[in-house]
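--- STAGE predict ---
source: upstream dedup step, 1 unique chain passed
mode: sequence only
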Amino acid sequence: MSNASMFQLTSPPKIITFDCYGTLVQWYEALEREAGPVLSKHSASDVSASAIIDSFPRTPGN
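--- STAGE serialize ---
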């Protein structure tokens, strides 16, 4: 079976979903990793990247 035949649909899909769980879970780590060097560059030793990120609500409305 060729790869081209795997994608031939007999009818168009009604729903398409995407797995974004890994992206959402890793979002915190990515923000923390990127914020750390910025804080260091500005000599902000009195606050951590995780403290800044944790100050924002994690769910809408909180």
